[in-house]
Specification:
The chain folds into two domains: 217 residues, Tetratricopeptide repeat domain (Serine Threonine Protein Phosphatase 5, Tetratricopeptide repeat), CATH 1.25.40; 96 residues. Helix 6 runs antiparallel to helix 7 and helix 12 runs antiparallel to helix 13. The chain is an all-alpha fold. It has 14 helices and no strands. The N terminus is likely disordered.
Length: 324
């Protein structure tokens, strides 16, 4: 295992130094490394694919976020075509290069990992990698499902466990942010009942904090719901009051116009002036009355000038009766 790890590190050094061609170049050493890896690691076996070696492949793949991987992918394809046996390890190495080299949210990445899973459905690394793509495209539920499947195949893998918990927490946070408290509570329950989390004290403490957050948001949501109900109730009351007022106003207008039509045929000019004054007083009384109805502090109304104006208008109406 140590020899293989040193070889991959040597290849990284050669790439960084841009020593690619020739017998001692990165291309040649990489091809030799792949041939050795086919024999040494072959198909997935957690006793052979140890975490240290896999970590070295992860880091090797990350190199191609900024470096050109095209020739290395060509070499990988050449090895895959030469011999169809023990290719699972070659596909794993290729998948790390492909993931880091190509856009991570492209349809190409989706199709590539789906094809790998068809060929190697029991390889947890491919489920784990596919979950990266799904999470990147905000398909959290399916990403969590793929992560959990990887853990089902290899429950002792701490890298998978941390990734899976992070995926689930991100999904929980997203639901909280969107105000989907019911779904967030369901997601929390799924996390709380997942045995691999409950056996770990770190995750247990994290779940305790998530529960507190959930409870806080539930309290806030309940208070907001109560406030919304109060606002709705008050709005409905005001709406009904306004409709009643408009009904009264319409009735007053109808009454006035009817009487005006009658009066036009029976009153002289002076009486008509008093009638117009009376009508103006009625409209002003109506306006001041509306102001009183919608005033918050009704006690202060009597201390204001509007109250005395209202009294004066009533007196005008009473006086005008004697002149019409």
């Amino acid at each position: 295992m140590g020899e293989a790890q040193t070889t991959i590190d040597e290849i990284k050094i050669l790439i960084n130094e841009n020593k690619l061609d020739g017998v001692d170049g990165a291309y040649e050493k990489f091809e030799n490394y792949l041939k050795e890896a086919k024999q040494k690691y072959g198909s997935f076996n957690k006793n052979k694919w140890l975490s240290g070696w896999r970590l070295s492949i992860y880091k090797f793949g990350q190199l191609f976020e900024t470096k050109d991987a095209s020739q290395f992918i060509t070499i990988l394809n050449k090895i895959l075509e030469e011999d169809i046996e023990n290719n699972e390890v070659i596909e794993f190495i290729k998948s790390e290069l492909m993931w880091n080299y190509f856009p991570k949210d492209s349809d190409f990445a989706k199709e590539y990992f789906e094809e790998l899973l068809k060929k190697y459905p029991c390889n947890p690394e491919f489920h784990h990698s596919y979950s990266h793509y799904l999470e990147r495209n905000e398909n959290y539920e399916k990403a969590i499902s793929e992560c959990r499947l990887a853990l089902k195949i290899e429950p002792q893998n701490r890298e998978f466990l941390i990734t899976c918990f992070d995926r689930e927490k991100i999904f929980f946070d997203q639901l909280i942010f969107e105000g989907q408290i019911f779904k967030a509570e369901k997601q929390f329950q799924n996390m709380q009942t997942f045995e691999l989390y409950t056996y770990n004290s770190t995750f247990n403490y994290a779940l305790f904090l998530l529960k507190d957050r959930l409870n806080d948001h539930k309290v806030i949501d309940n208070k907001i719901a109560k406030i919304d109900n109060i606002i709705t109730q008050k709005t409905e009351e005001e709406r009904r009051r306004l409709i009643e007022i408009l009904g009264i106003f319409a009735a007053i207008l109808g009454f006035i116009f009817t009487n005006v039509n009658i009066a036009l045929n029976s009153l002289n000019f002076e009486e008509m002036l008093w009638l117009m004054l009376e009508m103006a007083a009625i409209f002003l009384i109506f306006g001041i009355s509306m102001s009183y109805i919608f005033q918050k502090d009704k006690n202060s109304f009597y201390k204001e000038g509007k109250f005395w104006i209202l009294i004066a208008l009533f007196l005008v109406i009473i006086i005008s009766i004697f002149f019409i």
